[in-house]
Automatic annotation (TrEMBL):
The gene is bshC. The lineage of its organism: Bacteria, Bacillati, Bacillota, Bacilli, Bacillales. Residues 382-540 form the Bacillithiol biosynthesis BshC C-terminal coiled-coil domain. This is Putative cysteine ligase BshC. Belongs to the BshC family. Keywords: Ligase. The keyword Ligase applies. Its EC number is 6.-.-.-. Involved in bacillithiol (BSH) biosynthesis. May catalyze the last step of the pathway, the addition of cysteine to glucosamine malate (GlcN-Mal) to generate BSH. HAMAP family: BshC (MF_01867). Residues 1-380 form the Bacillithiol biosynthesis BshC N-terminal Rossmann-like domain. The keyword Ligase applies.
Length: 544
């Protein structure tokens, strides 16, 4: 593997401003950078806080052990007993087959930043991956994209439950998941590694109770030797450790929401759009009722209820439920960062652009609970480039950076316009002008014969013009067919490096690359050295 890097313009204005260390957004965060001075300051803050370290270590040991975690992971978990120890944390929804590549990139970011800071700070720093198992949007995690007929194709596994419940509680049919897997790999294509991967993945899907346990097992296998610690935010046992903070989220709910809205207003004043939807009375907590995950709203000073009012509690009733059944509660995008900060001594949070944007509204929310928002570390962003793609880049003479950022559509059209032998567009326009000129005389005569024929004349000329346009379109199609092979090079490049007009890491799945380069692909990727300098990484891979 060869690692190169370049500056990639981020379309998210808030994140771009944060990366640039712009003073405009610096005031939105407690630590406007993730440099050494900020991290030292964060360590000092965490030293003043107390955490339920023994309970957390016991829970994490049991949870990770069930997935046959490595000795390195258990060692990292035990480090959390040390009152000086801190964590680098990041997370993602639990997608099928680990979801898009960015999940893999985030794991690598967490591992490498934790290792780097342990060396620099001289204290135990452990890597933690927070699996968002409490999320209920199954359509965001139920699929992978594959290549089919030179296009992306979405292969989804149908939702196993009709209820809008969390992914952790959504048990599935392993046999149906295996059928889905076979379709996925049929599109990947058979290689020397396919049978080995398929055997392992089939076992994973058949033994997993749901997508989160499948996801956890895969991450353990891919990153266990590096010591990655996993936690499922939706697991009932973990919920019970959150009880104290859940009660605080209820009792301080009005203050929390006011602080959040103040953060959104501050963004508006700075000229930014709201990164999170603003809803009046949002309690920023979900409640599980009859298998469904329902958002709660405040109604007045002392009542919480669902949007339709069908379920309602007083503050006292809700606090009692949080004490007795904390597993009935679930966090949203505003309360989840608070819960992470309560549960773990968070040195830094590894974030994508979207997370950096919505955390910009949370500074005052953290202060309500006497917390400070941890430094945000932009996760490593990467594009994997094959030898085939490198050759195609040479053939079409396009800069790699351009293809990664905007695809090949404009370059493809430019090549076609420069190389096609006939200017169909100009000839077509000239033909239409001639037809319209000749038809004008006919139309004038029709009106003189009977004024009521004017509308028919307009319809007639439009119909003729439409037919000419249709002929032009067909001529262009036939012409492009003659240039199918040279034009296809542009499509192949875009499909590999800018699929669906997005960064590669947001679309393609890691098992396509493991099927191509072998089961050690992720280990090899994670073993490279990456600089946390905000630059996009280009990973050039050779076929073994």
């Amino acid at each position: 593997m060869r690692i190169d890097e370049f500056h990639l313009h981020d379309k998210n204005r808030i994140a771009a401003s944060y990366y640039a260390e712009d003073q405009k957004t610096a005031s939105l965060y407690d630590y406007p950078t993730f440099h050494h001075q900020s991290l030292m300051k964060r360590v000092s803050h965490l030293a003043t806080r107390e955490f339920q370290r023994d309970e957390l270590v016991n829970y994490l040991s049991d949870y990770n052990f069930q997935y046959a975690c490595s000795a390195k992971t258990l060692e990292n978990i035990r480090k959390l007993r040390d009152p000086k120890s801190v964590a680098v944390i990041g997370g993602q929804q639990a997608g099928l087959l680990t979801g898009p590549l960015l999940t893999i990139h985030k794991c690598i970011s967490i591992l490498q930043f934790a290792k780097l800071q342990e060396e620099r700070l001289g204290i135990p720093v452990v890597p933690v991956f927070w699996m968002a198992g409490e999320d209920h949007d199954y359509e965001e995690i139920n699929h992978v994209f594959v290549e089919s007929n030179q296009q992306t194709k979405k292969l989804a596994l149908p939702q196993p439950s009709p209820y809008k419940t969390s992914a952790t509680l959504m048990e599935w049919n392993g046999k149906k998941a295996v059928d889905w897997l076979e379709t996925v790999f049929a599109n990947f294509g058979e290689t020397a590694y396919t049978n080995e991967l398929m055997t392992s993945l089939k076992e994973n899907l058949l033994h997993a109770k749901h997508v989160v346990s499948s996801f956890a097992q895969l991450l353990t296998e891919l990153f266990g030797e590096f010591g990655l610690i996993l936690v499922d935010s939706g697991e009932p046992g973990f919920k019970r450790l959150q009880k104290t903070m859940t009660k605080r989220l209820i009792s301080e709910n009005q203050k929390l929401d006011t602080a959040f809205n103040r953060g959104l207003d501050r963004l508006s004043q700075l000229g930014f759009d709201h990164p999170v939807e603003q809803q009046e009375g949002n309690a920023h907590l979900f409640f599980y009722h009859e298998k469904e995950r329902l958002l709660l709203f405040r109604n007045g000073e002392d009542r919480f209820e669902t949007k339709d009012g069908s379920i309602s509690f007083t503050s006292e009733e809700l606090l009692a439920l949080a004490e007795e059944r904390p597993e009935c509660f679930s966090n949203n995008v505003v309360s989840r960062p608070l819960m992470q900060d309560f549960m773990f001594p968070v040195l830094a949070f590894v974030a994508g652009s979207g997370e950096i944007a919505y955390w910009s509204a949370l500074k005052d929310v953290f202060s309500i609970f006497s917390f400070t928002m941890p430094p945000l570390v932009p996760r490593l962003s990467m594009t994997i480039v094959s030898q085939k793609s490198e050759k195609l880049l040479q053939d079409v003479q396009l800069p790699l950076e351009d293809v990664i950022q905007k695809g090949t559509a404009q370059a493809k059209q430019r090549w076609y316009e420069q190389n096609k032998p006939h200017d169909i567009q100009s000839i077509g326009e000239e033909t239409i002008r001639a037809i319209q000129s000749a038809h004008a005389q006919l139309a004038q005569l029709a009106i003189e014969i009977d004024p009521s024929l004017e509308q028919l004349s307009e319809i007639n000329v439009n119909r003729i013009t439409k037919e000419v346009h249709y002929l032009q379109k067909k001529m262009e199609q036939k012409m492009k067919k003659q240039y199918k092979d040279p034009l296809a090079r542009y499509d192949q490049l875009a499909l590999a490096l800018y699929p669906n007009n997005q960064l590669q890491e947001r679309v393609w799945n890691v098992f396509y690359y493991m099927n191509t380069y072998g089961p050690t692909f992720v280990k090899d990727l994670a073993s490279q050295t990456y600089a946390f300098n905000g630059l996009h990484k280009v990973v050039s891979v050779t076929t073994s």
